[in-house]
Design brief:
The structure is a single chain. It contains 1 helix and 7 strands. It is globular, with a radius of gyration of 15 Å. The strands form 2 sheets. Strands 5-4-1-6-7 form a 5-stranded antiparallel β-sheet. A two-stranded antiparallel ribbon has the order 2-3. It has 98 residues and is mainly beta. It starts with a strand and ends in a 5-residue tail after the last strand.
């Protein structure tokens, strides 16, 4: 399912891969990722959102590299529903309504 929302761009940062030990003593590895920080304006206030960008999505990564802090953007996302969870995955910036 796709959705689009207006956000205020804050930054994008590279998070290095690594590992940690969970509460069961198992090693958990995670890959390098890019994290997009945006502000969402709601009727209850402003909330910072951190969204993971797929490292293979070079189109979106190039677009966010050209943004300046506090630019308003229309972010297109995939919404993936699980049992009791939902993941919001940014896939593009709609440049028609920037």
């Amino acid at each position: 399912m796709k959705c689009k929302g207006e956000f205020v761009f804050k930054s994008v940062e590279k998070r290095e891969g690594g590992s940690f030990t969970n509460d069961k003593g198992q090693a958990v590895n995670y890959d390098m990722a890019y994290v997009l920080k945006v502000d969402e304006l709601t009727q209850n206030g402003i909330y910072e959102r951190k969204l993971k960008i797929d490292k293979a999505n070079s189109v979106l990564l190039n677009k966010v590299q050209n943004l300046k802090p506090y630019d308003k953007i229309n972010l297109v996302c995939d919404v993936v529903l699980y049992g009791a969870n939902a993941r919001v995955i940014p896939v593009d910036i709609d440049s028609n309504n920037k």
